[in-house]
Amino acid sequence: xxxxxxxxxxxxxxxxxxxxxxxxxxxxxxxxxxxxxxxxxxxxxxxxxxxxxxxxxxxxxxxxxxxxxxxxxxxxxxxxxxxxxxxxxxxxxxxxxxxxxxxxxxxxxxxxxxxxxxxxxxxxxxxxxxxxxxxxxxxxxxxxxxxxxxxxxxxxxxxxxxxxxxxxxxxxxxxxxxxxxxxxxxxxxxxxxxxxxxxxxxxxxxxxxxxxxxxxxxxxxxxxxxxxxxxxxxxxxxxxxxxxxxxxxxxxxxxxxxxxxxxxxxxxxxxxxxxxxxxxxxxxxxxxxxxxxxxxxxxxxxxxxxxxxxxxxxxxxxxxxxxxxxxxxxxxxxxxxxxxxxxxxxxxxxxxxxxxxxxxxxxxxxxxxxxxxxxxxxxxxxxxxxxxxxxxxxxxxxxxxxxxxxxxxxxxxxxxxxxxxxxxxxxxxxxxxxxxxxxxxxxxxxxxxxxxxxxxxxxxxxxxxxxxxxxxxxx
Length: 475
Ligand code: MLC
Ligand code: AMP
What we know:
27% of the residues lie in helices and 25% in strands. By secondary structure, it is an alpha/beta fold. The termini are far apart.
């Protein structure tokens, strides 16, 4: 197989297998273990079946089918649209229509109108493919904005390769590591870092299904990935936490790690966690390093190839004194190629001189260490590490006959970071147990993790003189 200049899945190297260097436990997921040669043979057989397609959707359950389907598409140069497996009809309809996916690869949701191309986990092919061009879109990842339906983030092979190599350098990540995590396979964290990372570096991956403390404690790995909710739950279970003492690195990201959780991890495991900051649009741009300082509440230094800066509201530079805060802007080789079908939204997120506006507010100290202070908009909520737009939840709830007015906010929560709370003005005559009904409505229409954890029925919403809801009064 000729991988050309950008061998994205570097470790899936048939020449190495032919030379007798197999990796027997390259990926363990859903109770099955696949070797490097299993992965190459089965994924290449998938590639042969879909090589003529442009875009395929994958219902991203943590299974062998998902892994082989996605790898097959990557080998063939076909773009993958990972779909959250619990997506309801509204979410599914949007993602399929917007992405133009031509088929489901592996399995489709019940009653789907699209063809389903099965993934045969025992089939093998040793056909060789050349490496698709670096600009080829590898994934379209759907992510929420403040308003409207989720947008499709276009991630190229070159961006993914650069992003993973920068992390391997920052974390001294090598083929001697064993990565353990149980994160979903439809976002940057679990999918790009957590699945493609090991396949690029050549380190075995153990996917635990769910990221519970017991599941993490049961696997002997060298690196563990988690969102802060995972780490909060780990420190609540001290005997599980102590099992992680022999790891090399515990890595937290996707949301702010509370300082007390950092400190309890240090106390129980002897490790100061690595914190790293990223976005679907940028992959990981800032991180502490395996060989460097880790500071509770701070996410570290720009990774290889990345530059960052702070701007005030007038667009002027903000001093890097560790105190002054400003809008964080980044640039680097791991950034996305824009939002699918959304030229205006794409244009809006770039400054005139080519920096990406993250929408986060940060401080940078004199050594270049970064502290993420929060989001510029109250309408982008991070709950359990999932990014959820207040607008999409409000639209869904307004689609329910009993809802006259609604405002959705993120309220601080010890477990989830932020908890989604919907303030609802009900219509007259709405039935009993409306709160539960509205929570289920969102869980079923959009997806389970987007459901409000709480619905508060109110007589009116606080509005300013212009009639705009004052969300700050609700949090
Ligand atoms: C509860 N359930 C319901 C329900 N209420 N089901 C249907 N309808 C309802 N109304 C059920 C669910 O089906 C599920 O069942 C169970 O309740 C628990 O669901 P949950 O409460 O949503 O899960 P929870 O345990 O709270 O999840 C915590 C978590 C999860 C940490 C595991 O939030 C998670 O996986 N987060 C990761 C997010 C992530 O990867 N983000 C990265 C974005 S990329 P059952 O039976 O299934 O348990 C990014 C870039 C970067 O940010 O920097 O990384
Ligand atoms: P997503 O698109 O799901 O990748 O969400 C990206 C957002 O998650 C960022 O814009 C931040 O607001 C937040 N985020 C990611 N990592 C961190 C971190 N380490 N600390 C604080 N916020 C984070």
